[in-house]
Amino acid sequence: MPSHRMPSEADIISTVEFNHTGELLATGDKGGRVVIFQREPESKNAAHSQGEYDVYSTFQSHEPEFDYLKSLEIEEKINKIKWLPQQNAAHSLLSTNDKTIKLWKITERDKRPEGYNLKDEEGKLKDLSTVTSLQVPVLKPMDLMVEVSPRRVFANGHTYHINSISVNSDCETYMSADDLRINLWHLAITDRSFNIVDIKPANMEDLTEVITASEFHPHHCNLFVYSSSKGSLRLCDMRAAALCDKHSKLFEEPEDPSNRSFFSEIISSVSDVKFSHSGRYMLTRDYLTVKVWDLNMEARPIETYQVHDYLRSKLCSLYENDCIFDKFECAWNGSDSVIMTGAYNNFFRMFDRNTKRDVTLEASRESSKPRAVLKPRRVCVGGKRRRDDISVDSLDFTKKILHTAWHPAENIIAIAATNNLYIFQDKVNSEMH
Amino acid sequence: MEFKLEAHRIVSISLGKIYNSRVQRGGIKLHKNLLVSLVLRSARQVYLSDPCPGLYLAGPAGSPAVPPPQPGEPAAGPPAGWGEPPPPAAGAAWPEIEPQPERPADPATPRAGDAEPGAPMTGAGETVRGGEVEAAEAAWRRVEGPREAAEGGAGGPAGGSDGFPEGLREARRHCGCPPGAADRPGPLGACPRVDCCCAPRPAEDEPPAPPAVGPRKRGAAGVGGGPAPGSSPLKKPRRNSEEQSGGAAEEEEEEEMETGNVANLISIFGSSFSGLLRKSPGGGREEGEGEESGPEAAEPGQICCDKPVLRDINPWSTAIVAF
Fold first, then answer.
1. Is B83 inside a domain boundary?
2. Is B281 in Cβ contact with A316 (below 8 Å)?
3. How many separate domains does chain B show?
4. Which of A57, B48, B129, B269 has the lowest CB atom count within 10 Å?
5. Chain B residues with CB-CB distance to A325 below 8 A
6. Which residues of B36-66 are buried (b: 16+ CB within 10 A; e: fewer)?
7. Do residue B249 and residue A207 have CB atoms under 8 angstroms apart?
8. pTM (2 decimals)?
């Protein structure tokens, strides 16, 4: 594939997503490719090769496009992948770049018919004079072949850049959100969509906030949430009105005036929002914190965790090198007891909501040796420094973990570190607590 | 003083980012540019609320972050790709910008789609600095001239000045009051002399002649009148280019912008904000000028009390629009 960029930039992973059983793990990258990993069935004999993930399928989802009308190049980078709940033998997923969403169907073929009458094994037509009897072709096993085909292309629905997609629990519809609008689609209908949120002001000069992420409630097919660049969350009920510009609930925390700086607005912008599996809570990520919100309390989050507060004094430099605009994602574990998010220097953080303990781990080559135990890391901010501590100034801000995913049922996590994917398993505590 | 320097630096960086965003793959990112514009607003507020007029007069010596200006040098040439020639000198931009702050608010002064960032970061810095020094001279000459500007407008409602020239004017206040005296409202800002011109201008007081608000005027029939009398002929070409770009306000794409507009932008910020200041959308344009009732509504998060007078326009949002 021709590329004028650095050789590895197209390989930078831009999204990671487990399917609903955790058997499959999909990644999308900047080059528009999707790679699907499948968990190998655990073999009882070899205890140490339990359920590792191997490449299952690779395909090119999106290509770069050019919008001639606006003289705009449309990046092929995959912004989000969402799996559809499996309804038959095939798997389906939605992948999206800035402008176009595609539905892909992934099927397996492990048998093929043999014994045709009119053609031979290679498919060439037989000389009819050699055919003396009729036979019924039989299905014989073959090497597994994974076939991926695009089943739907949902195009031209968005003027601005798509930042999220979310499949509804009704398994029939899904929504896509860009900076200013959210559209509702039916999975089978590509030529039209229904606009359910529109925050574009009549006069663009009055623009003060944009939509940054959105998600359907996991159980209530009429509810969805979207986050804004101002740090607020809006829960909307599609039964209330056709256009859900008026929220049912507004979740907003008053700003702490003592923390005011030039960059207060930037760091309060929510980069990701995720419902808990229970549907009772929401998790949001802004630049320095992750917050847990209770759907029943709009005034403030019920929990706030500092991801890397030591960066608060460095916001100006982070603004200069654009790091302050990094959009980190966040994730719940299957039992909603632990939350996880990425940081810099290939660090990622986990917070146990029950014990209030947190840990910083590193995704690096050393730590990914088989059966290596991840060693907790520590960033020191001056004062006493322990031996393996990293000082704030020696953090590598080019190594950022923006995308993480947690297996829906087990303690398996997928961490995207630039162009490397790390999959860690907690063998000791396989069960969720 | 350090705040001012840092604010100035942040303004330069921000403008550079917005400029660079035009050439990024995938088109301009609305979210990022909105955030950058918010930073610009904050930086501007701090910049203008920190009264150090000496910064302008002293020239580059006080600002290590900025390259020394070349007064004789024309504005930094536009980067390749810009379709329009830059103005002869950035300094030329100042004379027409300068009178702006005196006027509380042009009635519904159309937000030009012009407010686009111009030069790349270094260029912006150079242009601004060059412009500043030249503006220092130019504005200084202007201030000496039309008295009306100085008398009525020099005081200006409390709070943020409207761009560099005002700070300049403060230093030269002919009543002898210390510079920045009128900058601060209330007891802090009280001038020693009761009758001095530093007294905050009453809300209704507007200079007789509409000032040149060239870059912000959208059309020849712009609301609020045509070009101010005595406006510099240099203004026209720039305005034309901005009007053209203003027409494309709706969507992301925008035409190239001249280097000189960088300087205009700085003072445009000085003039007014609306949408970004307010929590609720639908900005204050309808409030119009002259509506500034005594105490400005304290907006949450405001670092200084910006003149409500000047909140009818947010050219920076226009810049976002322009994208």
1. no
2. no
3. 1
4. A57
5. 32, 35
6. bbbbbbbbbbbbbbbbbbebbbebbeebeeb
7. no
8. 0.66
